[in-house]
Design a protein that fits this description.
Blueprint: H1 2-27, E1 30-36, H2 45-58, E2 63-68, H3 71-79, H4 87-96, E3 101-106, H5 113-125, E4 134-138, H6 145-159, E5 167-173, H7 183-192, E6 198-202, H8 209-218, E7 223-228, H9 235-241, H10 249-255, E8 259-262, H11 271-288
Parallel strand pairs: 1-2, 1-3, 3-4, 5-6, 5-7, 7-8
The structure holds ligand SHN, cobalt (II) ion and fe (ii) ion.
Active site: 174 (proton acceptor)
Binding site for Co(2+): 174, 204, 236
GO molecular function: metal ion binding; sirohydrochlorin cobaltochelatase activity
Length: 291
């Protein structure tokens, strides 16, 4: 009798352990958080919608949420009645909503200041009491050598038909005081393997337009196709690049005698470019067991 009692207690214990385990498993809730700088320009929606569509197709069974890193952009949108979460707000809500694992994908171009800030936020959320158990951050568009090769291929496919000996394509990157500004001239090197007629400049980093003008001249360029090297064709593309003001790149190039043409298309509008971010997302999803 004692033996039977012991045995049944033993089985009850095993059953209990198994039930707890099954219970834990069932409680796992895994999600994706897509994080972009953001934009206050409604015209940039197409770019974000394209990313959303492609990620949803890749992960049809996973809940996908969005956050913007720019405080200024979120403030402008809030005044218009549109509330977009910061990365910290989005992660706090996901913790409250029972998510145990979250793949956070950076939609930035370079691993610069905005990306670093996001990385710190994501790290801070790891192991938060009663919060999300595991979060991982996916690399921005340009990170490893492979990314630069793939992006150069993707952009060359888009622009090669426009090139000729007298026509250049000039990409406008944002630029940064962060050490990762080197990715802009670095990426230009990859593009140059495709054609000498590709140039990459920045609005507020290195190189500025002043440094590119003499190169356009010495290469015998007569016409410049301007296009953003940012996920969206937003504020910088519409004003600093293609605006009719004194200081825009378009105005300055025309003053210097170049013909100009504008391709007002953000990088995230090209499926092939979004594919690079999605590869980075897939890598962290694999680590988190998100399918
Ligand atoms: C830190 C800061 C310092 C500074 O620039 O002064 C900074 C830094 C960086 N911005 C980057 C990218 C972009 N910035 C914009 C736009 C704006 N950026 C602005 C401010 C600030 N930007 C300051 C923080 C203020 C804050 O926290 O809110 C706004 C608000 C005001 C203004 O610039 O005048 C204006 C809003 C326009 C609007 O209303 O919509 C766009 C889109 C666009 O052009 O519209 C993109 C392309 C995004 C993309 O590609 O998706 C990158 C490269 C990141 C990367 O892609 O890797 C870095 C540097 C880095 O991260 O190292
Ligand atoms: Co800016
Ligand atoms: Fe910015």
């Amino acid at each position: 009798m004692r033996r039977i009692l012991h045995l049944s207690i033993f089985f009850l214990l095993i059953l209990n352990v198994q039930m707890t385990y099954a219970h834990k498993k069932a409680e796992d809730k895994k999600g994706i958080l897509l994080v972009t700088f953001g934009s206050s320009y409604p015209e940039t929606r197409v770019a974000f919608e394209n990313i959303d569509k492609i990620v949803k197709a890749e992960f049809p069974n996973v809940e996908i949420r969005w956050a913007y890193t720019s405080k200024i952009v979120r403030k402008i949108l809030k005044k218009r009645g549109e509330n977009i979460d910061s990365p910290a707000e989005a992660l706090a809500k996901m913790g409250e909503d029972g998510f145990t694992h979250v793949a956070v994908q950076s939609l930035h171009i370079i691993p610069g200041e905005e990306y670093d800030n996001l990385k710190h936020t994501v790290e801070a959320f790891n192991g938060m009491p009663k919060g999300i158990k595991v979060t991982e951050i996916g690399a921005p568009l340009l990170f490893l050598d492979h990314d630069q090769m793939q992006l150069a291929d993707a952009l060359h496919q888009q622009f090669k038909s426009k090139l000729n000996s007298k026509t250049a394509v000039l990409f406008m990157g944002h630029g940064s005081h962060h050490q990762s500004n080197i990715y802009y001239p670095g990426f230009e090197y990859y593009l140059k393997q495709k054609s000498d007629q590709y140039f990459v400049g920045t609005v507020e980093g290195f190189p500025l337009l002043d440094a590119i003008l003499p190169q356009l001249k010495s290469n015998g360029i007569k016409k410049v196709i301007l296009t953003p090297f940012m996920s969206v064709a937003g504020d910088h593309a519409r004003n600093d690049m293609a605006g009719n003001e004194e200081d825009s790149w378009k105005t300055n190039l025309e003053k210097e005698g170049f013909k100009t043409e504008v391709a007002m298309i953000g990088l995230a509008e090209y499926d092939s470019v979004v594919g690079i971010w999605v590869e980075h997302l897939k890598a962290i999803c694999q680590e988190l067991g998100i399918r």
